[in-house]
Amino acid sequence: MTEVQHQKWWGWGVEGVTFTHDNKPNFAPFVLDKVGLDLSLGGTPPPRFEDLEVPAPRLPDALADELRAAVGETHVVTGDMERVVHTYGKGISDLVRVRAGDLPRVPDVVVYPGDEDEVRAVVDLADAADAVIIPFGGGSNISGSLTPEPGETRPVVSLDMGRMNKVLEIDETSGLARVQAGVLGPDLEEQLGARGWTSGHQPDSFRHSTLGGWVATRSSGMQSDRYGDIADITRGLRSVLPGRVVSLRPLPSTSTGPSVREMIIGSEGRLGVITEVWIHVHRLPEKRLVVAYLYQSWGSALEAMREISTSDVHPSITRVSDPAETQFSLSTQKAQTGIKGKISTGIFDLLARRGWDLDQVCLSYVGYEGSPKHVAYQRRAVGRIVGRHGGIPLGTGPGALYDQKKFDTPYIRDFLLDMGALADVSETAAPWARLRGIYERTVTAARATYDALGVRGYIMCHLSHSYHSGACLYFTFAFPADDADGAAPPLEQYWQLKSAIQQSFIDGGGTLSHHHGVGTDHAPWMEADISEAGVELMVGLLGSADPHRRLNPGTLLPAHREW
Amino acid sequence: MTEVQHQKWWGWGVEGVTFTHDNKPNFAPFVLDKVGLDLSLGGTPPPRFEDLEVPAPRLPDALADELRAAVGETHVVTGDMERVVHTYGKGISDLVRVRAGDLPRVPDVVVYPGDEDEVRAVVDLADAADAVIIPFGGGSNISGSLTPEPGETRPVVSLDMGRMNKVLEIDETSGLARVQAGVLGPDLEEQLGARGWTSGHQPDSFRHSTLGGWVATRSSGMQSDRYGDIADITRGLRSVLPGRVVSLRPLPSTSTGPSVREMIIGSEGRLGVITEVWIHVHRLPEKRLVVAYLYQSWGSALEAMREISTSDVHPSITRVSDPAETQFSLSTQKAQTGIKGKISTGIFDLLARRGWDLDQVCLSYVGYEGSPKHVAYQRRAVGRIVGRHGGIPLGTGPGALYDQKKFDTPYIRDFLLDMGALADVSETAAPWARLRGIYERTVTAARATYDALGVRGYIMCHLSHSYHSGACLYFTFAFPADDADGAAPPLEQYWQLKSAIQQSFIDGGGTLSHHHGVGTDHAPWMEADISEAGVELMVGLLGSADPHRRLNPGTLLPAHREW
C-alpha cells in the first residue's frame, strides 16, 4: 500500500465523484434529440473489479528484492488493483478496454520512489535487469502513452511519481520554482498559493495530472495565452536515464545548440524519468475576471478571436464554442432560475427579435488578469473588437460559473459510457487561415463516418489557446455505438471516427495534437505531421539514448520506425 | 563571380563604411583615459589581400564538374578572395587571424545554389564525394561556427545561401511569411515592408546576417521582448540533409514529441542546410517610440527592469547600460550642440546638484509600439516604475538617435584593432536573482585578467532582452594587447580574458551564450551548461543524422565528444 491516491480504475477522477443530470432538466432532452439516446432507460454500470481477469505479475524475484531494497517494502506494489490502474490512461479506448477486462499486458510492479536518488536506483536496477520502465504521473493521458506493448516479454515497471510532490524552492526574485515532477495540479497550486504564487497552468486534466506529465506530453492550459504552454513555463529540468541525469539549470533563454530542454519536453518517458522541473511562477493577480460574450455566427466569432490575438491587449483566456458546443453548454445548465451565472433564456428571446439565428449563436469566454486598471483597459479593448464583429457581452456571471465547472466535463464521458455511448476529444492547432477549413473538413468527416457506421453522432468544437499565428481547435464527439448483430465492436467504430478526424487535421494543415501528446494513438500521423526526415531525427535521438528500448517503448513513433 | 555581396575580408560590413571619431571630440580622450591608447598616433591598417598566402583549393575535378552542372558555372567559385571571406566569421579572433594570414584550412570551393533543388543536389554531391559542407549566410558569426577544422583532409564546400533571398509568400490572415533562408536583414524587411509587414527581428548584426543564420544560431534581436527570439518567430522550416529534407509546416504550437523544430534551431549546420523558414510577421506598428531614461545606479536600474518585466505592460525594447557603458556612449556623441537626440551635459549638472554620483549613472532605452493610445498607456506605466526606482525620463530624442545608430558598434572594433586593441563581446542570460552576481563576477574576472596580463582594459555591460524570469547581460571588453618582447601573442591574451568571462557566466548560473551560438569558441563550456548527459543526447542526435561528420563538423560540441 502507498499513500498515493489514484483515479478510478474504470473512469475519470476519484471514487464518489460522478456526473449527474438530475438538476439539469435540458440535458436528457438534448441527448435524446441529438443522438437518440434515452437516458431514462438507465445504463450499465462498470463491472466489478473482482470480475476482471488480471494476469499475474511476472517480476523476477531478484529484481523485486532489489527494488524493495531501493525504495522500501511498502513502495513496491504488485497488487492487481494498482497494476490495473497503471495499465491504461483515461482515453475512451482505455476505458472501454479496461471495463471489458482487456488486459493483454499489465505492468508487473508499481514502484513509488521518494526522491531522485531512488528514481536513479530504480531506473538503474530495471535497466540492468532488462526491464521496461514506464513513468506514471496522474494517469490522465488520453493518447495511449501509458500502456505496455501487448507483446512485451520483459518485466514491466510502472514508475509512479506520486510521492514526489513537493515545491522544493521558490526563487521569488526571478519568479521561478523548483518542483518535484509528481505533484498534482491542485497540490502544486496550494503549495505555491500559500506563498502568494501561481503557475497559471490549468489543463482540463488539472485535478488529476502532474507537472511531470504536463512536461512529458507538452501540455497546455486554459490560461496559456497569458502564462504560456508548459514548454514556455518549463525553464529547467532534470531527467533520469540509466546511469546518468540530464540536468538543465533554469534559464530565461539560451543559445546552446539544438534545445535539449525541448527534446525532453514531449518525450513521454522515452528520454528518461523527469524528476524535477523549474517552472515560471507568477504573483497571484490582483484581479481576475472571465467575461462571456455571444456571437451571431462561428465565422464572426473566429474573426473576432483572430483580431484579439493581433491587438495590443493579451487576455489570459480566449475561448469560443461553435453553435453545437454552445447548445451543449446550455443543455447542462442547472434548473434554478435566477442562479448567478446562468445564461438567461430571456437574452435569446431578445436576440431572436433582433434577427439572430439562434441555431448559429456561439458562446465565448475571455479572461482578464492584472491590476484593476489593466483588467478594465483590456476588457474595453476586447469589447470594442467583439462589438465590431457583431458580438455582445453577457457579463461576468456566466464566466464565473464556467470557471467553477471547467474541470468537470470528463465525468460526462463516463456517464455516457454507462449508457453505451462513446465520447472522446481530439484537438489540433493550425494557422488562423487554416482554422475554418479544418473545422469544416473535420465536421464533415465525422458526419460521413457516423453515416457510414449507421449511428447518430454529435460533434462540437471550441477554439482556445490563441497565438500570434493561429489557435487550437478542440473537438468533442460522441455517439451511441451500433450494437446490432454483426456491427463492428464499439472500439472499431470509435477508431474509424477518430482516424477520420485526425486525418482531417493533417489534410487541413493542422497538427496531430495541440496538447494531448502523441502516445500510440497519434503515432501513425507523425510522419505526415513532421515529415519522414523529421521522424528520422527523432528516431536517431531516442535510439541513441535508449538502444535497447527500455524507456516506455512504443510511444511517439509509428511502429515501423521502432528499432 | 556571383551577384552576392560580401563583407570585407578583414572586418565588419562592406568596403567604404568605417568608424571615425573625427566628429566625436570626447572619444579620443575617453580611450586615452580608460585604456591608455593614444588615438592621435595613428594605427596600422589591415594588410593588402595580395600579401596573404592563400592555400590552393583541393577540389577533386569530378566534384567540381558535378557542382558546376548542378548550380551553373558562375555559381561555383574557387577564387582566393571568396574562399578567404568564407573561412572566418567576424569575431575578434577571426579578424586577428585573417589579417595575420593565418589560413590553415580554407574552403576549397564556394557554391551558390539558386533554389532548394540545387541545395539538395550540392548536399548530395558533397556527401557522395565525402566532402564537408559548411552552410554560410552573412558571415557575421562571432563564435567560430564557420571555420573548417584545421586538420580537415576532405574537400570543404562552403555553401553560400546568398542567392536564396526571396520572401516566397505571406499568409496575411495568419501573420506568417515563407522566406528563403539566405535573405539578409535589410532585404527581408524591405520585401516585407513593401506589403506592410515586419518581422521585428533586429539583431546587432541585422545588416550583415541572414534569416537562416539567425535560425541556425538561435538569434535574438533588440525588440525580442515584443517579437520573440528567433526560436519563437520560427514556426516552420525546411532543412536539407543528404538524401532527405526535414519539412516542418507552420504551426502556432504542437504536441508532437521532442521538438524537431527546436532541434534544427541552433544546429549551426550540423543538421543540414536550412533553405526556407516560416516566420511570424506583424503589421508595421501604428506608432513606435524609444524613450531614454537615466538611473542613479546599476542596482536601481536592474530592479526597475525587473519590475517592468513583471508588470502588466510589455515594451518592445528594455535596455539599460551600466555606468561604464553609459560613459562610453556619451563619449561617442557628436560634437554639434543642440543636435536633436544628444544628451545634454546640462542634465548632468542638474543631476549632480540633486546629489547623483555621475560616475554611477546608467542610461536606459525602452521601446513602445502599438496604437498611439497603447503606446501612451505603456509609457505612463513604465514611467511610474522608473520613477519608483529613482530614475528620470530624457524623452524621445536620444532614443531616436540610438535607433539610428544601433547597428554601428562593430565598426569601432575594426578601428580599435588597427590601433592594436582587441575588442569583443560576450553575452549570457540568467534568472533575475543571478544577474547582479554574474555582473560582479564577470567584471572582477576581467579586471583580474587585465592585471595578470599587465594591460589596461575596459569592460562594460548592458542588460537587454527581458523575460519573465530573467534577462540577457551583454558585455563588451577591450584592451590594447601587450606587445612587449616576451608577451604572449595578442590572441592568447584575448583567450585568457574571454575564457575568464565565459567561466564567470557559468559559475554565476548563466548560460554560455544568450544569442551568439556555440560554435567552437563556446563549445568547451557545453557540458558545464547543459550537463554531460545533455551533451550526450545532442551527440546521439547529431551523430545519428551525420555519422560521417560531413555537416559542419567541429561546431557545437567539445572536441572530446566528437565521433
Mean of pLDDT of chain A: 96
Overall outline of chain A: globular
The total beta strand count of chain A reads 18
Largest sheet of chain A: 7 strands, antiparallel
Percentage of residues assigned to helices of chain A: 25-40%
Work out the strand percent of chain A: 15-25%
Termini separation of chain A: 37 Å
Instruction: Give the low-pLDDT segments of chain A.
Output: none
Oligomer: homodimer
Rg of chain A, please?
Answer: 23 Å
Q: What class do helices, strands and sheet pairing of chain A give?
A: alpha+beta
Work out the largest interface and the residue count of each chain: A-B, 91 and 91 residues
Strand order of the largest sheet of chain A: 15-12-14-13-17-18-16
Task: Quickly count the helices of chain A.
Answer: 20
Quick structural summary:
Two copies of one chain form a homodimer. Chain A has 563 residues and is of the alpha+beta class. Helices cover 36% and strands 19% of the residues of chain A.
